[in-house]
UniProtKB/TrEMBL annotation:
Residues 226-264 form a coiled coil. It comes from the Eukaryota. Residues 75-219 form the DUF7708 domain. The lineage of its organism: Eukaryota, Fungi, Dikarya, Ascomycota, Pezizomycotina. This is DUF7708 domain-containing protein. Keywords: Coiled coil.
Amino acid sequence: MTSLWYLASPNAHNVAATAFEEGLRVFKTKLTADPKKREYLDDLKAATLHEVLVEVSKAQAVYDAKRGSSQVRECILAFSKRVHHYGTVMDVMVQHHPEYASLAWGAMKIVFGSIVEHERLGSTIVTAMCDIADALPRIELAEVLYPTTMMKQTIALLYSYIIKFLLRALAWYETSTASRAIQSFTRPSALRYTDLIQDIYKATGKVNELSVAGSQAEQRDMHNKLRDIHAEQKELRDQLQEHLEEVQRQLQSLTTLVQQTNQGQQWTESTLSLHIQDTVVMNQNIMASQVDIRHQLSDVQLTQALTFISSSCSIDHKTTYQQALLFRQARKLSMTSKCTPFWDSNLLRTWNTSSSSSRITLKATFRDRLNVRDFSTNVIEQLMKSSVAIFWVLKTQDASYSTFDVLKSLIYQALTRDYVSHTDTVFSFNLRKFQAAHSLDDYLNLLGDLLEHLKLVYIIIDLDAVSAEGVDDCRKAFNAFSRNLALRDAKTVLKAMYLEYRPGVGQEKADDELLLRIARAPQRQSKRIPNVPLRGRLKLAMRKLPDRAGAIAM
């Protein structure tokens, strides 16, 4: 594996200290047999090679301070170099006249050769120490960059050579002048230091070779990793391209579906108006065909009376309900028919299941208005199937009504729902009150008379069907109507619901009125409006039929 050329071994912690300790061990066991050098190295208490080098540098400084730089010494040294340089020529001349100069010249050559060798030995030590000092930073960098086992062993061997050289140099600096002069003759630099310096250079070269090999192995691994990353990126780009193409196909299919849906909606809207009229006429005929058997108005009289009341009403509640059913059916297949499941809220459940009269406002955004309308349509349908008294004022296209129109429509709905229970005397009395009504209080009192015999009544008013200037009056009127029912000591439980989604509407909300805000929800949390939206037990409207004719006569 190429990583072995540049990654650290598992048990490598402090590579520099470990290599130095290994170098000391190699030096003590293999490179020296002198116990004095071992003891001296222990006395240095050096932890790194730099500390040993510092000790040698101190000894060199002491040596240079003692030696000085006298002019006589420099002249002797220069003369010795020249004599030593031309010694070979003198050796040739001595061969011709040995009887004159051999003894004297031999003595002079030994003396001056020792002087030159002494200077060369000092120069060799200083040069080698400079080279070692220059090489140590590179060695430490190699230790940090490539802390492998081979690098550790090579650096340990290099450190042992350097320690051996430094101890020799330290011993040379600390010896006496006479001893150094003798060593210049007995131990020249070529014999004592050259082989050791060459070993240091070879070990340094091997460290450099290991660094180059580690660098090449690391580059190869980097290239392989980059190649793998490039392949992964290419595969990822291909997958992303396939995903984008799939998204484009889905978008195209969705666009086609939306176009088809729009065409279907246009066709539905064009046919709705035709079917609505037929349905309204059919329902009116069915309602008009019902007859009263005992103490009831005749069909002709009832039709005339209800037609009179209906003619004064600008709101056709049956038509608006039929339109709401058709529009709800058309929106069932649309994604926009899903919304926040507000029908599961505790606030709505409390309003519906409480045993006392209560009012609630469903506050929705303009975007959710269709869902709120569908909810109210389902509530009306549910209550009608449960035979619960339910009256409503729903939104129609481009139409807005006053508070008077709302009250007239509710009165008309109350009369048409229970017309079978009215005798001609009671019905004629209510008809006269309807004709004589001119104020909101008159219509509210008449509505209270019609509803007080019912135990449970639901009223749903879409405030968007009321004109903007009449919304507050409408709220005030129904707040007063609830209080009037309580003052009548009536047993009627009134459940009023307001639908509100127009900005600026609903400023006159009473303190005891509940408010349910319908917030937008993410698509995955949205649900379709259930067919039975009101939860809990519904109290059926059991009609209470007092002797209304007798009460009126009194």
